[in-house]
Amino acid sequence: MPTAVTPLDKAIDHFRRGGFVALLDSANREDEADLLQAAQYVSGESINFMLTHVRGLITVAMAPQRLSELQIPVLDQQFCSANMPRFTMPVDYTPAVTTGVSAFDRAATIQALADSETRPEDFARPGHVFPLAAAPDGLAERAGHTEGAVRLSQLAGLAPVVAMCEIMTPDGHMAAGATLQRFLEAHNVPLVTVEQIAQALGVRPAGPDD
Fold first, then answer.
1. pLDDT at residue 131, as a whole number
2. Residue of 1, 22, 7, 32 lying closest to 208 (CA atoms)
3. What local confidence, expressed as pLDDT, does residue 2 receive?
4. In angstroms, what is the C-alpha Rg of the chain?
5. Backbone angles phi and psi of 105, in degrees to 5
6. Measuring CA to CA, which residue among 30, 147, 133 is closest to residue 81?
7. Cys-Cys link to 11, which of 6, 80, 94, 149 (CB 3.0-4.6 A)?
8. Number of Cβ within a 10 Å radius of residue 157
9. Cα–Cα distance, 188 to 209 (Å, whole number)
10. What is residue 133's predicted lDDT score, i.e. its pLDDT?
């Protein structure tokens, strides 16, 4: 695990102003870091950065209430581990996209997911952006990146909608240890942990099998 964990208040301030933050989960879980950005600040350029330099699957962590407002259903799970993320129907924001797959189209969809003015009928399903439903009880129920991202956004006073992408190495493996540290330093990205967020909320995070 990298040693350069950022004080949570500094990371929250950076996130609140639209910056990237890396979120690391427990070594007893995936022990992986995702790059996060608040959905309202996402741009075509930031999504392209994720595609080019971060390389994982771009998803959107969302509070269940917001998904319910937009009538975006959680997909049934089959043959999955108990700790799998809760994927929903993928969507495209039809007023602003063409094919839906470009970095700029995906950014428009992600921004729209956080916009209180958008309505269910504004989103084509299926599409090219993959929302993930946070567990209703948050980190107390599931101590994953999805729940940590939503709670981080709430601590920052932002909409509970966060773009996420797993940090991978150029050779296609998950970034960890010194490799992850070099990525964070190269791009001036603060690192926080799920445990830090849970502690700030006074929550005992769920275990890896919960």
1. 98
2. 32
3. 44
4. 16
5. -65, -45
6. 30
7. 6
8. 8
9. 33
10. 98
Specify the DSSP class assigned to residue 139.
G
Q: CA of 138: how far to CAs of 88, 119, 141, in Å?
A: 17, 25, 6
Domains of the chain, by residue range, sit at 8-78+85-200
* CA-CA-CA-CA dihedral for 166, 172, 173, 175, to nearest 10: -50
Class of the 8-78+85-200 domain?
alpha beta
Q: Positive or negative CA dihedral for 113, 114, 115, 116?
A: positive
Q: What is the pLDDT of residue 3?
A: 56
How many angstroms separate the CA atoms of 15 and 89, rounded?
27
CA distance 138 to 133: 10
- Which two three-digit tokens encode residue 39? 């959905």
Q: Per residue in 102-136, is it b (16+ CB within 10 Å) or e — as a string?
A: bbebbbbbbbbbbeeebeeebbeeebbbbbbbbbe
- Return the amino acid letter for 12: I
Q: Which two tokens stand for residue 4?
A: 């350069």
